[in-house]
Structure formats: C-alpha cells, structure tokens
Amino acid sequence: MHTAALFSIATGSSDPIYRQLIEQVRRLTAAAVLKPGDVLPSVRDVALALAVNPMTVSKAYNMLETEGLLSRARGVGMLVAEGNKPQGRENLLRPALERAAAEARQLELDPDTVLQLFAKILGETK
Question: What's the rounded Cα separation, in Å, for the pair 106 and 50?
Fold first, then answer.
C-alpha cells in the first residue's frame, strides 16, 4: 500500500486539485511507480495529508475508476486496475509542451532559444 505522501498539490496552479490528482496517478502508473494491483492510499488519508476536502479526492478516484485506470475492491479500497494499459510517458507530457510551444510562438521566440531554455530547465535541480 502506498501512502498519501505519494501525492502533492500545487496551490497556485490554475488546474483544479482533483485534476492534479488525476494527472499524478496517470504519471505514476506510466512510470510504473504504481503497478497493477497496488493499493492507493484511502480518500481520507489523502485528504488529511493534503488538507483538501475528501470529496475532491473521491472525485479524482471516481473519474480514474470510470476511465478504467483504478478499480474498487471491497474491504481493500482503490487499486490500480489489472490489465491497465497506462498512457505512454511522452503522451502525458505532450499537452504541457503544446501549451509551452503556443506561449513561445506568442512571444515570438525562435526555436533555438526555446530549446536552450528547456535544456537549462531540465538541468536545474528539482
């Protein structure tokens, strides 16, 4: 079983918290941090750890269950669904890069400058 520390939220983000949780579960399954059959932390534990409304966590889990990434097991909780085929890591990153590319075009930055900036950001410590 994983702990609620698995998740984090960006309070300044324009993305709703439930959407942030959904994207984190997708990334964690794509990176095989969460594998089929792994038990996710309870709604209550995640809500307490992140200081969010339990309904927000429940909404994220329910949406992931609907899309087939998670399944519910009586007496156990939410599991990463067996037979789950996670999206490729590149596919998960693509929307963020498309948004960055659109902003770079609006700023009329040349591709070399953007690539150098991206390489610099990748090299920065986390």
Answer: 35
What are φ and ψ of residue 71, in 5° steps? Answer: -135, 155
Q: How far is CA 1 from CA 41, 76, 77, 101, 104, in A?
A: 7, 10, 10, 38, 41
Q: How far is CA 8 from the centre of its chain?
A: 9
User: How far is residue 94's CA from residue 71's CA, in Å, rounded to a whole number?
Assistant: 26
Residue 71 structure tokens: 């399944």
Angstrom distance (rounded) from CA 84 to CA 47: 25
Are the CB atoms for 26 and 86 separated by under 8 Å? yes
CB 7 within 8 A of CB 46: yes
Stated pTM of the model: 0.73
Question: pLDDT (tens digit, 9 = 90+) per residue, 17-69?
Answer: 999 999 999 989 988 899 999 999 999 999 999 999 999 999 999 999 999 99
